[in-house]
Specification:
Elements: E1 55-59, H1 64-75, E2 79-84, H2 89-101, E3 106-110, H3 116-130, E4 135-138, H4 154-175, E5 184-188, H5 201-221, E6 227-233, H6 241-245, H7 270-277, E7 288-291
Parallel strand pairs: 1-2, 1-4, 2-3, 4-5, 5-6, 6-7
Length: 298
Amino acid sequence: MSADQYAFEDPTQKFADITPKAQYLEGAGTDEELSSPADHGEETYRGSGRLEGRKALVTGGDSGIGAAVAIAYAREGADVAISYLAEEEEDAQKIVALVEAAGRKAVALPGDITDREFCTQLVEKAVSELGGLDILVNNAGKQQHVEDFLELDDENFDETYKTNVYAMFWITKAALPHLVPGSTIINTTSIQAYQPAPMLVDYASTKAAINTFSKGLAMQLAPKGIRVNAVAPGPIWTPLQPAGGQPSDALPDVGSQTALGRWGQPAELAPAYVFLASGESSYVVGETLHVDGGMPTP
């Protein structure tokens, strides 16, 4: 277990007690099933009031990066709504409890974001329950490795694009009428947009699309006082990885290609999302902030 995000530590040894093993998870996977529990900052994230009174919707907020963001936002003073698949209810309730323990309102919104109608309802419910919306984090994603391109079928290709790109479009479009000047939109892209793995052609291309979408929308919305930015994680230990995101036998060694030589943890992403949501980043627009352990990008 690491100290909080302000601690002085050797980054190559941080989270050294978390050692992923070879495993495969059915469906979307849950944190409960991980061979080595991921760190979302449950015991370590220390807030300082940077998002006091804000209202956030985080997709994929039950586990992984989204869970770490939800915890951090709550401890920084924001009320938080999270979306997730119904099968992830157990993980979601743990995050709800942590948000409430921080003294903030938590809203749990299960459903499938590949459904356009649900995306619209998701935003409306979040706005209604939170009493408004001024932070949108499009984070939920689908990643399935396919070694042979000829085995990448239409159904999986379509679902990856609907989860990663269409849902972002639908949710952002539904949210915009509710966002006032000072609001922020943060989209999760990936190192895969810059260094695509041969077995992740569809996933990597969606992340490149998210990059361009974010930069283009940022230019359109900046004059209205709404900032759009993105975060590009490297290899981060989340249920997405053993649930088909990577080959099972590769899991112990993923992250060794980074300069730090290890997996990243969701807790290490949260400060980037806090920065981009807060007033500290008021002059940051159309940026892709890389949190990838040292994987050179253009």
